[in-house]
Design brief:
mainly alpha
Amino acid sequence: MSLAAKPRRAIALAYGLVCHLSFAAAILAMVFGLYSGMQSGLGPLHGGAAWAANLLLLAQFPLLHSWLLTPRGRRLLARFAPRAWGSTLTPTLYATVASWQLLAVFVFWSPSDFVWRMPGGSFSAIATAAFLLSWLFLGKALLDAGLGLQTGSIGWTAMWRGAPPRYPAMPARGLFRRSRQPIYLGFALTLWTGPVWTPDHLLLALLWTGYCLLGPLHKEQRFRALHGEEFARYQRRVPYFIPRLFP
């Protein structure tokens, strides 16, 4: 290994560690938050101030998450990397920021402490199983889309190699054969299968399900520009959100 490669790889590894530790923390916070009916947050607010702050937390995720995929958003992300590697590290930075956004929601949420339903016995077991299955579905969708892209690893590993990122092809296999947006579908399922229901949980599920239904429209515009007729044929063949059970 050349001397020049050592600092480059050290920097790449640092970005990768921050990204993946943040990603893991965000997933754990989201699982725990949804399973508890959004009663695990550490936010100190009450009453109207709590609802206002919680709405801001909910809004910042879809708005910033979508904007960072625009050319201006990607240029902003690139500024937080060494100049020569800005575009290379953009996927890693995007995943890192998304993880921080999710952490902000589930850690700083101010709970209402008002529980509508706390299932017990066999119903609790069924609800928990449905919740776990939703996460397994989401994990499979992320895998089918290209786990390196979804977790941000294609950015820092490309910098480690000293080469451009290896972006996956347009996803059309696995769950993507049944639905064009299985990641958003899986995300929505995790919102509705948590066993504990509270006003907080319902607010989050309603608003973010709306994002899951509308947000992919922007993504599909980018895919039409990137993949042209290939994506147009895919659109005609595969439903948008609700999966086709049979080919």
